[in-house]
Amino acid sequence: MPTKRRIVIALAFAAALAPVACQKYSVVPPRGASFPATQSQPGSTNPVPPELLNQPIDSQPQLPMLQIPAAQRNLWKPKGTARDWKHIVIHHTATSRGSVESIHEAHLKRKDNSGNPWLGIGYHFVIGNGNGMPDGEIEQTFRWRQQMHGAHAGVGDYNQRGIGIVLVGNFEKEHPTAAQLVAVKSLVRMLKAEYRIDAEHVVGHSDVKATACPGKYFPLDEVSFGLPASGFVRRTSRPGESTFADFNRN
Known about the structure:
five-stranded mixed sheet, 8 helices, globular
């Protein structure tokens, strides 16, 4: 084959391969290739803006904290229309164990001052201590689900417009468990916010009736005002006061 013809064929073959070589550079850049400072190289993350590089960490922009609507935080929000709640009344069972079921059975045997039998458990919420219910578990009762009056305070307005919370345990003899305190603080905080109840209207049963309930070892101010644990106990028992087990409620 004449030399000139071989050269022509070789040049034609090289020209045919040229697009393939260029196409390769679309994936792997040629040696020495550079990119504008505002663009990211393939496979890299977006670059940090130069003006932020020399700023202290605390001064750099932060993402806003996630705000959860109050309605979503209320795990016990009733389905129907809420009652006009004005008070929260705290109790203890004055027993070492208990549950919604056991208290319900006991209250079914009670009668009010007119001789009418109770509908069942008089409280709206029960918080367990690990004996009969899991420690720190909060369970609502039919009175809360149906937004009914309570039968726990022995005083009309505190039954009609007071949310009754009872913790299993005898707090004349011992302190609530750590889990119970976390639970009751969380529940009270939610109820206060949801129904606009101020701390002065979060009371112990002994604030509205002559009784030792919820016991001298229950930190009522800590719970009412949302204070950190301090070991402070609001009340001491007084001679002649009744307890959960023997007071006459309606």
